[in-house]
Amino acid sequence: MSTTPYPLRLLQGVREKLSPICLGLDPRPDLMPEECWPGSRRDAGAAAEAAENFGLRLLEALAPHAAAVKVQIAFYEALGIRGLEAYQRTLKEARRRGLIAIADVKRGDIASTAEAYAAAHLAPGAPFEADAVTLSPWLGHDSLEPFLGHCQKAGKGVYLLLHTSNPGSKDVQELPLADGTPLYRRLAVLMAGWQRDLGGEGMSPLGAVVGATYPTELADGLALLPRAPFLVPGYGAQGAGGREVACLYARGPAPHLVNASRSLIYSQRENGQSFEDGAIAAALAMKAEIGRFAPALAPPPSRAP
Predict the structure, then answer these.
(1) Is the full-model pTM beyond 0.90?
(2) E runs forming strands in the chain
(3) How far apart, in whole angstroms, are the C-alpha atoms of residue 241 and residue 213?
(4) Rounded CA gap, 231 and 22, in Å?
(5) Does 151 reside within a domain?
(6) Number of domains in the chain
(7) What's the CATH code of the domain at 243?
(8) What angle do the packed helices 215-224 and 183-198 form, to 10 degrees?
(9) C-alpha–C-alpha distance, residues 45 and 47, integer Å
(10) Residue 301 located in a structural domain
(11) What are the residue ranges of helices labelled H in 27-182?
């Protein structure tokens, strides 16, 4: 069990690799490469085995280039019990490789149910132990308390959905309150108070999810929550790029993550190239593209021999 505060572990990973990449694992049976499947079978058991092979091979390939991995539980749940076993082993392997492992579960409930969810995903030695989880905050602070307790006791992290990357997010998250304030801004104010309640100085283990597809709202969130680690989806397949995420690193390497799923794990391959090599090439291109707009993450110039 690590008691090092979550943001410090995050920052260490970003600094060491000069990479903010969070590898998003979304294993879809219709898209996973042929070489991950066990023979010609295409039943649920074979799909679960393929999902595990796919995830573990990507972890091995991209561990040197990514600071974190976000494992989306829904794609494993869809494959039944064997899928959840694959999810469990994938999280364990990510942490063994020194990656920050984020369980993308988007839970949100109260009382003993929230306690059970927190125990399943954040308690040391839990069945699905991860370093951090994603949560829906819309049931209020009491629905978050069991998770925040693990932040204090076990160095875990929590990401609340503040302004998500999907087009429909504005339907609710930008609804104006009576004074005209968008709803997501009110949530950010509440989050700042919850961070103070957690105590400590510097960056907080209570972070925010804001989509890179909403760069104005991302910059707004950074201003409202200067102590929050940000988990930023929307890069690549959803249309955002280095320009949209550069604000995260304006002051240097920071414990913020840029998530990429489809653009990494289902990347185009050159003739004869393995899917791992395709993912590595896509990750290197992503690092270089972000570095063009965020010089703090640009690799040092190579020296001539």
Answers:
(1) yes
(2) 21-25, 68-72, 100-107, 132-135, 157-163, 206-210, 230-232, 257-260
(3) 9
(4) 8
(5) yes
(6) 1
(7) 3.20.20.70
(8) 30
(9) 5
(10) no
(11) 44-62, 73-77, 80-96, 111-121, 145-154, 170-173
Report whether 50 contacts 275 (CB < 8 A): no
Write down the pLDDT at residue 239.
86
Domain of residue 250: give its range. Answer: 6-294
pLDDT tens per residue, range 26-69: 999 999 999 999 988 778 899 999 999 999 999 999 999 999 99
Catalytic-residue membership of 70: no
In a domain, 261, yes or no: yes
Q: Tell me the HSE value of 189 on the side-chain side, using a 13 A CA sphere.
A: 5
pLDDT per position as a tens digit, 167-216: 899 899 999 999 999 999 999 999 999 999 998 889 999 999 999 999 99
Question: Are 159 and 102 a contacting pair, CB within 8 Å?
Answer: yes
- Say which of 70, 106, 153, 170 is annotated catalytic: 106
* Domain-embedded: residue 304: no
